[in-house]
Design goal:
Number of domains: 2
CATH superfamily of the largest domain: Tandem AAA-ATPase domain
Number of strands: 10
Radius of gyration: 23 Å
Shape: globular
Length: 374
């Protein structure tokens, strides 16, 4: 959908009367479509200003008890960016509630969602919610359960990486945001059938019929056109056009830390890194996050050493989780936890009892100055 430049100015002026800033075209289109359709699916790369869009929507929908949802490591960053936007004259609400995908992933009995009772979910980096089917995100399943139980809950979804695995990754997101106006099927089986047709692994006759194209027309082109021009779907691929990409080889330094990490899944002091409750079903190996930290010569660990009984119970439980994941019995810590509760596992009973007695304050430990010189 096109957006008249004058409309961009009008939306910007209403939200920033000091005229210190103006929404970009894609931001204004996202805000407009959400207001007109009740939700928006925004696909835009890093740098498109999705945080400002989230702040604007949370302000405009303040009466709906909106909850902005961001990745676990982006909470403080998002709060800081919203504060900076306010300094630039944007009249953003000071009551914006922000949660993380980890909060939802670990919300076994929905206490977090019930406490916020969101009438609207504004999800940044919504690729964390990819796939609600088997093998998909446990967090997505929780959100799906919430929306099914509270169908009045609306959603705005923003992501920069939604074409990774095809329509199965993001079809449900379009249904959550646009409901009956979504350009994709509503039923998971139909979404899977479209996915197979697009990948050439299934029949495409029904999909061609639903798209209104003949047997000789380009199926993928017709599908892209349907997505691209659907009201409520805003897609930009221009954020980094012309930017050079350079690769740099990094040799990790402290081999002793790496050996302990790979062999035992722990860091100095016995800190077990596999405790993510990971909403990303493909990241079952918690060491990957630490490897990325070590690539810049640092890692995170508690500022105060945990009590020995607490650390021992924690280590035993997460070793059990790793073994279960390695055996194919679960894909995430959340799934493993549910099984541990169901089976009455002693390691979970011990950990769940002692976990609340100590809250670790996580701090970075710097091994060198590679990050500074990067």
């Amino acid at each position: 959908m096109e957006c008249d430049p004058s409309a961009v100015s009008e939306i910007s002026l209403a939200l920033n009367p000091s005229r210190q800033g103006e929404l970009r075209l894609i931001q204004a289109m996202a805000v407009r479509d959400s207001l007109q359709l009740g939700g928006v699916f925004l696909g835009a790369r890093v740098g498109a200003g999705k945080t400002l869009v989230a702040g604007v929507l949370a302000t405009l929908y303040e009466d709906e008890r909106p909850l902005v949802v961001v990745p676990g490591g982006h909470l403080e960053k998002t709060e800081h960016e919203l504060a900076e936007y306010r300094k630039q004259g944007w009249q953003l609400s000071h009551k914006i509630q922000i949660g993380t995908y980890n909060d939802i992933a670990r919300d076994a009995d929905e206490k977090f969602l019930r406490a916020h009772a969101p009438g609207r979910l504004i999800c940044d980096e919504a690729d964390k919610l990819r796939r609600v089917s088997r093998g998909g995100s446990g967090t997505a399943a929780r959100v799906n359960d919430w929306i099914c139980a509270h169908p009045e809950t609306r959603m705005d979804a923003m992501t920069g990486t939604f074409f990774k695995e095809g329509i199965r990754d993001y079809g449900h997101l379009m249904n959550w945001t646009l409901r009956g106006a979504a350009p994709v099927p509503r039923l998971p089986l139909d979404i899977a059938a479209w996915n197979g047709a697009l990948k050439g692994t299934g029949s495409d006759k029904r999909m061609r019929l639903e798209l209104g194209i003949g047997p000789d027309e380009d199926l993928k082109a017709a599908f892209r056109s349907r997505i691209w021009y659907s009201p409520g779907v805003i897609i930009s691929i221009d954020a980094f056009t012309g930017v050079a990409l350079k690769f740099r080889k990094i040799v990790l330094g402290d081999s002793a830390i790496l050996e302990e990490l790979y062999e035992d899944g722990t860091l100095p002091g016995g800190w077990d890194v596999v405790d993510t409750g990971d909403e990303d079903a493909e990241s079952v190996d918690g060491t990957w996050a630490v490897q990325r930290q070590l690539a810049l010569d640092f890692y995170y660990t508690p500022a105060t050493p945990p009590p020995a009984p607490w650390l021992r119970a924690r280590r035993q439980y997460f070793r059990w989780v790793r073994k279960l994941i390695a055996a194919g019995g679960a894909k995430t810590e959340l799934q493993a936890r549910r099984l541990a509760i169901q089976w009455g596992e002693e390691v979970w009973a011990a950990w769940s009892q002692i976990e609340p007695t100590f809250i670790p304050h996580i701090v970075p430990v710097w091994l060198g100055d590679l990050a500074i010189n990067y």
